[in-house]
Amino acid sequence: MKTKTANKGYELPYPEEFRLHKPFCLECGKEMVYGRPDRKFCCPSCKNRYHNRSESASKRIKLRVQHILEKNYRILLTFLESGIRDVPLSSLTVMGFNPLYFTSSVKQKKCSICMCFDIIYHLTARNVYNMEFVNTLPK
Fold first, then answer.
1. 53-104 pLDDT per residue, tens
2. What SS3 class is residue 135?
3. What is the spatial distance between Cα 114 and Cα 123, in angstroms, rounded to a whole number?
4. How far apart are CA 38 and CA 60, in angstroms?
5. What is the spatial distance between Cα 62 and Cα 84, in angstroms, rounded to a whole number?
6. How far apart are CA 27 and CA 47, in angstroms?
7. Based on the structure, what is the number of domains in the chain?
């Protein structure tokens, strides 16, 4: 909404501190001499660079967690394919299994029932047992 001034011209209804203060680009630091006084970036490429950089940290974390989950899945799958359902946790950790990462879990009195994608297993402080596939498809 525009406000009318005494000289019959129009000016933007920004507070006085915005009109006196020249903004600087958050990405490159250049002073912006034109445009809205509350804008944050001098051009679309600076805006894209700024947001891509801020999102890259969360993408790295997501990729790292996904990599750990996939590695856990491959390790559990090798035992399931060979018919082994009970394994000491120390053997799994030597292979690179990380027991802190799973896709879901339910805590019980003596163990936790964990899932890594479609593999369900019981986890204690020393063992992983009752490994099996979960039937997710309706028959």
1. 878 888 889 999 999 999 999 999 999 999 999 999 999 999 999 999 999 9
2. coil
3. 7
4. 32
5. 31
6. 7
7. 1
Predicted confidence band at 4 (pLDDT cuts at 50, 70, 90)?
A: very low
Token readout for 16 is: 């006085």
Sheet-wide strand order for 87-88? 87-88, 127-133, 119-123, 112-116, 104-107
Give burial (CB, 10 Å; 0-12/13-18/19+) of 79: buried
Q: How far apart are CA 61 and CA 18, in angstroms?
A: 38
**Which ranges constitute the DSSP H helices of 16-43?**
16-20
Structural domain range at position 46:
27-133
| 57 located within any domain | yes
Place of tokens 């399931």: 80
Q: Is residue 42 part of a domain?
A: yes
Nearest-angstrom CA–CA distance, 138 and 66: 27
Q: Are strands 127-133 and 119-123 parallel, antiparallel or unpaired?
A: antiparallel
